[in-house]
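Forgive a beginner's question, but might I ask you for the amino acids of a protein and the tokens describing how it folds?
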Amino acid sequence: MLSVSGKSLWRRPFRTIGLAALVLVVASCATGPAVPSESDPATSEAQQSPAKPAEAQKPAGVDPDWPRWGFTHTGISANNITPRFEQAVAESLAQTPMLQNQHIMGFGAFNPQPTRQDYAWEDLDSRTNFMKQSGGTQIITLCCAPDWMKGGPEGMTSPEGWKEHLEDAPYPQHFDDYAKLAATVAKRYSDVDYFLVWNEFKGFWKDHSKPADYKGYTQLYNKVYDAVKAVRPDAKIGGPYLGFDSNKSGDSELRGDWGVVNQNVLDAFNYWYENKKGADFIVVDGASPTDAHELLPDEFGALSKFSAVTEWLREKTDDMPVWWSEWYIEPEDGTKWPENKRLAVQAASMMEFAKSGAATALYWNPQAKSGACRACMWDPKTGAQRPTGKLVSSFAKWFPAGAEVQDVASSDPKVRVLAQPDRLLLVNTTDAQVTTTVDGTEYALKPYEIKWSDR
């Protein structure tokens, strides 16, 4: 950790390198080939006759009109291009309002408190204004911490500071300072009701083979919780924003064909849950691949991890709303699936959230300013909605938290199905054309095709 005496390392203003530098420190942003055109599998439609309703599953513990689906703004977003571009994306998103999340520092926002006395709100103002303009339900993640709270100097953050120290936790002697900053954010953005405390135990869990500093995180969480509730009793606060890592084997009660959740994760969650001052919802994230990039038993079978974790959390917390702040499906070992396969796996993962009663799922949107933008929600040049954006918005439209999820079977188990009374979603999980019968209607699907159908 850099000491305060090392001022020369962090002194250069971050603005001299622009927002592009932030992209380098945004974790888990995929890149790759361009997404297919308008005929992509995320929007294939079929008009079919109505089907008989089936037994509904237990709804999530949130309001019936809760959107459930949304995304997190990262290093680049629509407000970083031009006013005309921002307006175009905002108008597109407003057609299907959803949840939108923004961090207070990093991931598209500069240091909000460069000195003990001074605040810098330009970036948060810009992002929250965009969220309002695009009809989004606003969420703020209270992460990360200004340099002077974690061993750096006061002043604008340097390039080295962003690259090497963004994910450092504040020092314990600055927990009160960070709680005060969180309360200041909550007061300033009084129209934001939902706040996530920190992000993936950053700085509290550097070696995942060892126990996390869950006592330190819980201390910070409780101070933030008390400070925010003191100035905004109406605010809804969630934690611990803990990554549910899994391995092929190990000793843990939370296990399945997809692997075994790291016991250190469960220990950290249990301590926080038993010692927190309060919480309005539970926040976690995770990936279907194991830490060793394995997909068990395969890329689609591994997705059952999301249901298993959601169900474990709902049972553990007496059915508190479970938020997935991020989720990932592709191994981070250089693997790049064809886009139709990536979309099919993503659609199937979202089916798992809907079926298991997850209250919220936020897509980590890896936007770019130009060029190929694999998995982006909108086109970096035109602002037009891309297949991933269409997929997320379609789930927001047809499967919000209050949707009546019905038990509908496919005659071919290779085709996954999610249904509500008026809409049906089918996903071909193979690289071959298949034909299946659902509700007495026959459907032909291309390799990895996603098909939406009226019922």
